[in-house]
Write a structure and sequence with these properties.
The complex is a heterodimer of chains A (about 525) and B (about 300).
Chain A: H1 7-43, H2 47-58, H3 61-67, H4 76-103, H5 105-110, H6 112-117, H7 125-152, H8 156-183, H9 187-210, H10 220-225, H11 237-257, H12 280-307, H13 312-317, H14 321-330, H15 334-366, H16 369-374, H17 380-414, H18 419-427, H19 431-447, H20 454-468, H21 476-479, H22 497-520
Chain B: E1 5-6, E2 9-22, E3 25-36, E4 40-44, H1 51-58, E5 66-71, H2 80-84, E6 87-90, H3 102-113, H4 118-127, H5 141-153, E7 159-163, H6 171-186, E8 190-194, H7 198-204, E9 207-212, E10 215-221, H8 222-227, E11 230-237, E12 250-256, E13 259-265, H9 269-278, E14 281-287, H10 291-300
Parallel strand pairs in B: 4-8, 4-9, 6-7, 7-8
Antiparallel strand pairs in B: 1-2, 2-3, 2-5, 9-10, 11-13, 11-14, 12-13
Helix pairs in contact in B: 3-5, 4-5
The chains are: A mainly alpha (about 525), B alpha/beta (about 300).
């Protein structure tokens, strides 16, 4: 096994480099599960209340599409599994993706990999060390999820199943990331591939869970949920995950053996000898077009997935008085209320594009690309505006694609052609709060390059308010900080122009302030 | 415009008492630098002395905390973009967008600077033996430097700011670079060259500024600077030398019979030779200080004196 010589040394080095990162990912994910148990217990003091709430949730197609199949919702365990399993698995998947990318393709791209490989280590040692690292991280994650829930007092079998689901899903996507890292030369492209697979896996189980469940079996996230935590556990789907992990591992090694260090299985093609890029705008479009197109296509598909639930929503909700009460408060029919919620949900996901797009500026600055550009006759403000124009245009495209997809999906299923425009119109106003999140990210970046990460915190806050605000019984003033709360919930409510204009004005002011700050500070690169 | 004429010549870069702090750390602590029109100015200093920081202030990327900085008589922070039409910059660490080809980057930078000389562009690509179709991701450090150099040298500018531009080039390419800088300078244009390659500085530069810990410790022509340092002398005489050890400026004197070797401060060279002459000189070799010695002297010792 000389090919593995030194793997443990490399592994120790990885653990040293990643200890804080691992801590935050794992602690954050464990907390996601644990907090569901605490909040469910806090919210429903009697079994009767929980029964009543469960009856309402069981029929809620939107929540099922977001979270997963509704099982044993009248137990605390069932609630935890339902609310945390899908998102918790995605967190595990993302953790694995970043761990793998960081230690394989990113190291090769930066040239640091050569430094390590020049030492007395085996050819497969870096790959093996990364695989071990991801395994350790996911085993730890799964064990801590199970352990913390058992310690809380939930049934042991279900807690083990839930932890197992998270850890195994993380490992499957770690395998996907490992294969992707062999295919392409750039880390960004490898993340793109893995991220797309995670997205497809989530969408497959969303459509499957709302429908007859067949599509959910194609999704690693679905395999985890089929362990049925707290609801008469079945263990054999573990084999599906294990088989996938083994298969992906073998594939990664086989691909690795067929390529040179530094290059991918898919070779980079030569570029043009003459460039057509002549402006900062052209450059920023060139740099971001991949993510604009990818996000737009993804949101279109996501929208179609939601839309294709059609007016079954009504059937799913059935006679549940509870949910009728809930939706009646939003006004309009149950179907309209469902799509009003879906529009916010999709807009929040789309905000991920807007924030990442603004953060490209930080990446350009930190990696030193901006330095060369700003030493030309390109003024700093125009460099920034060129990027932000792509952010704004991309955000509009991404949010509208979601609305268009939703309307089209609905129209295809129900034959109601007018739904295309109706659901598109319901989504359009959400461009504004999404842009406000982008503007906040931009302001933070303008003050200090590293602060750009604050954008994710703001999005996380809006997400918590939207998903769990009522459950956690957050005070109104706190929830009102989220700009998404202030728009009329179309199509359930009528369009109201006032909040849109107010939010636009705030966005413009925040954006202008960001520019003032950027023009006053140092441009830094490492 | 008052500042732009010093000693009857145009001053392209004029920095006086520049201070730049990063948090509590002081990177530049009263730095002075003058570059005249038509000269190649060497900018020397050990790692971390503040060379790149100075250049970034000159480019308007960093904001000065104190002192005055003018570029072509204007404020580089305030008029950055306008001034950048007149200069081209090659950073020490050339970072390029990994998915753009070298040719695309050259054209982009050129256009943003206000246009490229097409003929010179293709000539330079040929001379530097650069393959412009490769993606930047696949370029070595030297090739990334070539991309930045071609983009800079093909632009129609009055000033080149080069931050250790040849650290990744092979000797052949370094020779090409030297020729290109010579040609650039022959048209009456100016160059600020930060470098660690002393042979290159000696070969190219008219004047040199040496900085240390954020301050200028020496500035002048190479001849000026040599004057401030020691010449090593080795002589064979007709009789044992007398009176040398008492002479001002003579160091490390070793006398073996009729042979004497010593170092002498260059200002005292004349007196030392007179003393040797009294003992009858048979053979004499004297070596002017190399830039290396200059460099080491300024870097290695405390230069407060």
């Amino acid at each position: 096994m000389t090919g593995l010589t030194g793997a443990l040394t490399v592994l120790r080095f990885h653990l040293r480099r990643d200890r804080m990162m691992l801590f935050w990912w794992i602690a954050g994910d464990v907390l996601l599960y644990y907090s569901q148990a605490v909040s469910t217990d806090g919210l429903y003091t009697t079994q009767a209340e929980l029964d009543k709430a469960a009856a309402g949730m069981e029929g809620n197609a939107a929540f099922i599409a977001m979270a997963g199949p509704a099982r044993a919702l009248n137990t605390v365990g069932g609630q935890v599994a339902w609310q945390a399993a899908a998102f918790g698995a995605i967190v595990a998947a993302l953790m694995s993706m970043f761990l793998v990318g960081r230690h394989t393709r990113a190291e090769e791209e930066s040239g640091r990999d050569e430094l390590v490989r020049a030492a007395a280590i085996g050819r497969h040692a870096p790959l093996a060390a990364t695989a071990l690292l991801v395994t350790i991280a996911n085993v730890l994650l799964g064990a801590l999820i199970s352990g913390s829930l058992i310690a809380y007092g939930l049934p042991a079998a279900g807690s083990v199943a839930l932890g197992l689901a998270a850890g195994l899903t993380g490992l499957v996507f770690g395998g996907v990331a490992l294969v992707a890292a062999q295919l392409v030369e750039s880390t960004r492209a490898a993340y793109g591939i893995t991220g797309a697979v995670i997205g497809v896996a989530y969408a497959l189980r969303a459509v499957g869970d709302v429908g007859n469940g067949a599509l959910s079996w194609l999704s690693p996230i679905g395999w985890g949920q089929y362990l049925r935590p707290y609801a008469d556990e079945q263990w054999w789907p573990v084999l599906l995950s294990v088989a996938a992990i083994a298969l992906l591992g073998f594939a990664a090694v086989a691909l690795f053996d067929r390529r040179d260090i530094g290059s991918g299985v898919w070779p980079a093609r030569p570029g043009p000898a003459r460039g057509s890029l002549g402006s900062a705008w052209a450059l920023s479009w060139r740099l971001q077009r991949g993510s604009v197109i990818g996000w737009t296509a993804g949101m279109l598909l996501g929208g179609i997935a939601y839309g294709s639930i059609g007016d079954d929503v009504g059937d799913l909700l059935g006679d549940s008085n509870f949910s009728k009460d809930v939706f009646a408060s939003a006004g309009g029919s149950i179907v309209d209320s469902f799509y009003a919620t879906a529009a916010v949900m999709l807009a929040l996901i789309g905000a991920g594009f807007a924030i990442a797009s603004v953060q490209r500026l930080r990446g350009e600055e930190a990696s030193g690309f901006a330095e060369g550009l700003l030493a030309t006759a390109l003024p700093r403000w125009r460099w920034a505006v060129a990027h932000l124009v792509v952010t704004v245009v991309g955000t509009i495209a991404v949010v509208l694609a979601a609305g268009l997809g939703m309307g089209t999906g609905f129209a295809l299923v129900t034959g109601d052609g007018s739904a295309v425009l109706r659901l598109l119109r319901a989504t359009v106003p959400y461009v504004v709060p999404v842009l406000l999140l982008a503007a906040l990210t931009w302001l933070a970046y303008g003050i200090r390059s590293r602060w750009a990460a604050i954008g994710w915190l703001a999005l996380g806050f809006c997400f918590v308010v939207m998903m769990f605000g009522a459950v956690l019984q957050l005070p109104d003033w706190l929830m009102d900080v989220s700009p998404f709360r202030h728009l009329a919930q179309m199509p359930a409510e009528d369009f109201d122009v006032v909040p849109v204009i107010v939010l636009l004005a705030i966005t413009a002011a925040v954006g202008a302030l960001g520019m003032v700050c950027l023009r006053r500070r140092d441009v830094v690169s490492n | 415009m008052k500042r732009s004429t010093v000693g009857g010549m145009d001053t392209v870069i004029d920095i006086a008492g520049l201070v730049k702090r990063f948090g509590h750390a002081t990177a530049l602590d009263g730095l002075d630098l003058q570059v005249e029109r038509g000269e190649v100015h060497g900018f020397l200093g050990p790692n971390g002395a503040g060379k790149s920081t100075t250049i970034r202030v000159l480019l308007g990327l960093l904001r000065a905390d104190g002192g005055t900085v003018t570029l072509f008589g204007q404020d580089p922070w305030h008029d950055a973009a306008e001034l950048h039409r007149r200069l081209a910059y090659v950073p020490g660490d050339v970072n390029l967008w990994p998915n753009l080809s070298g040719g695309e980057v050259i054209d982009l930078l050129g256009r943003l600077r206000g246009g490229l000389d097409e003929k010179r562009r293709s000539l330079l690509i040929e001379r530097f033996e650069l393959d412009p179709t490769k993606k930047s991701r696949t370029y070595s450090k030297g090739n990334r430097q070539k991309v930045a150099l071609v983009a800079a040298l093909a632009s129609d500018v009055e000033l080149l700011i080069l931050d250790e531009p040849t650290s990744g080039l092979d000797p052949l390419m370094e020779a090409v670079f030297t020729d290109c800088v010579d040609e650039f300078k022959d048209d009456g244009r100016s160059v600020l060259l930060s470098s660690h390659i002393l042979a290159e500085v000696e070969r190219l530069c008219d004047r040199v500024s040496i900085i240390r810990a954020g301050r200028t410790v020496e500035s002048g022509t190479l001849a000026d600077l040599r004057h401030l340092t020691r010449t090593s002398v080795s002589a064979e005489l007709s009789e044992a030398p007398a009176g040398l050890d008492g002479l001002a400026g003579v160091h490390d004197l070793v006398v073996e019979g009729v042979r004497a070797t010593f170092e002498v401060d260059t200002v005292h060279l004349g007196a030392a030779l007179e003393a040797l002459g009294r003992s009858g000189i048979r053979t004499l070799t004297s070596q002017p200080p190399t830039l290396e010695e200059l460099f080491l002297r300024h870097y290695g010792e405390d230069v407060s004196s």
